[in-house]
Amino acid sequence: MPRRRFVAVAIALTVLSCVTVAGAYHLLAGAGESMLEEANKFLATFSGEQKQKVAIAYDAEKRTDWHFIPKADGEREGVKVRDMNESQRKAAHALLKAALSEAGYGKATKIMSLEGLLHELEKAKGGKQIRDTERYFFTIYGTPAPDSKWGLSVEGHHLSLNFVVDKGHVVSTTPSAFGANPAIVKNDNVPSIPKGTRVLAKEETLALELVASLTAEQKREATLDKVPSEVANAGKPQPATDLPKGISAEKLTGEQKSTLRSLVEEYANSFPADVAKARMEAIRSGGVEKISFAWAGSAKEGEPRYYSIQGPTFQIEFINAQADSAGNPANHIHSVWRDVRGDFAIPAK
Q1: What is the value of pTM for the model shown?
Q2: DSSP bridge pairs for 334
Q3: Residue 287 in 3-state DSSP?
Q4: Which of 67, 87, 145, 229 has its CA 20 to 30 A from that of 294?
């Protein structure tokens, strides 16, 4: 290979090698120690029957029973924010802040606030779903201690965050799901959520930028036959093993690799810096040349679209196909990050 071409290829691969994902999980203790401290402060605000609900056994069957859909009371473990007193709510949010980055906490709380908008949009239609900004459940699995393994779940409509901390280190952050309905707020129905609000903006716009940059040949290789009905294995304990591959990262230009890197980082950076770093380092160790990007649907606003990004250690899926609660087509996002090696710190079989 001529030296000039060799250098160009090396630089391009180095650009994408910064795109590491879903954890080698030899993490710095920072996030784990912060979560441990805040988890114990949170638990200290509970007593009696409430404490029995918020703190359950690490090996409880429900620990892996996750989903981002609305569920009836009794179908989720833990205590919902609506049933917490003020000190418990503050402690719950302090724990969530410790588990996420500032950007991730902002996304999570905005997703919660969209439930208020859904309430306004659906009440005139006699909506059957309960839309409540405080219908989010916090559950601690096991005993948070420096030498123990314990878990945290924060879950409700369009949000499912699942963590495992082992001996003060975060060892799992998957599945992690963020959704948004509406994806783009079309009207000023709620003063606190102005028209144009877009909670998961970069998750969509960076993918559109990448697709727009593909050549006709690249697009043919990347594009799937149709938009799926939902992200794969939603609600199941482990990720799918048969996602369609699309185009290999090796076939992308340096600029396209850079866009793909930024897209993956947008997901990783919802978590504390040490967790995000471990997620990104895992891609490099797994082989950046093994990453692939698949696309389906339309780049036009209001028309269904889907993409996946995957490698030996991770899967990212994004789908915007459903109408929002006001009836605007393809304005309702589901997105998820999963660990191919095993979610919930349970090795994949």
Answers
A1: 0.91
A2: 179, 319
A3: coil
A4: 67
